Amino acid sequence: MKSDKSSNIQNRFTKYLVIAVERRRIKYLQKLQQRANNEVGFPDNVKDEPRIDFEELHNRFIVERTEYAAEHWEKMQEFLQLIDETKLVNAITKLKETERILLFGRIMGELTFEELGKKIGVSSQQAQQAFFYVLRKLRKELKK
């Protein structure tokens, strides 16, 4: 009789464990389904069209604009002649060619110092120092 009681208890405990594991599994699967429902899916109707890289387009535009300014210095001189401030024009015309490239490349071309350094054949740090030297030189010339 004792063996019947112990086997009965054993069977009930086993059934309890099986039911508990099954309920736990069902709750786990329900949570997974709920997460999947809450996630934003990628629409199926969107095609794999190439994306436009606006940063690359902007950088290409800046390079083209700076190359144009460097190659067409005569037109830049005409622009400078239109400026009313004769002191500034005189100060800019006194600059060396590389100093003008640094000035116009940074201000009008919006180039980085690394790009300017490559353009004039120096490191980015040297280009930065040269640019600020040009600014100091212009300020000094304008104070006269």
Model description:
By secondary structure, the protein is mainly α. It has helices at residues 2-38, 54-71, 73-82, 86-93, 97-107, 113-120, 124-143. The protein has two domains: 1-40; 69-143, Winged helix-like DNA-binding domain superfamily/Winged helix DNA-binding domain (Arc Repressor Mutant, subunit A, Orthogonal Bundle). The protein contains seven helices and no strands. α5 (97-107) crosses α7 (124-143) and α6 packs across α7. The N and C termini lie far apart (118 Å).
Characteristics:
Arc Repressor Mutant, subunit A; 144 residues; mainly alpha
**Overall pLDDT:** 77
Q: Could you say how many structural domains there are in total? A: 2
Q: Termini distance?
A: 118 Å
Rg, Å, rounded = 37 Å
In short:
By secondary structure, this protein is mainly α. The protein has 2 domains: 1-40; 69-143, Orthogonal Bundle (Arc Repressor Mutant, subunit A). The chain has helices spanning 2-38, 54-71, 73-82, 86-93, 97-107, 113-120, 124-143.
